[in-house]
Amino acid sequence: MPRNPKHQQTTEVSEGENGAGALLAALIDGGADTSRLLELYYWTREPGIVELIRTYLDLPERTQRNLSTFLLNGRTASISSTFDQQGRLVLGRTPTDQNGAASPDRHRQS
Question: Residue 35's pLDDT is what?
Answer without folding.
Answer: 85
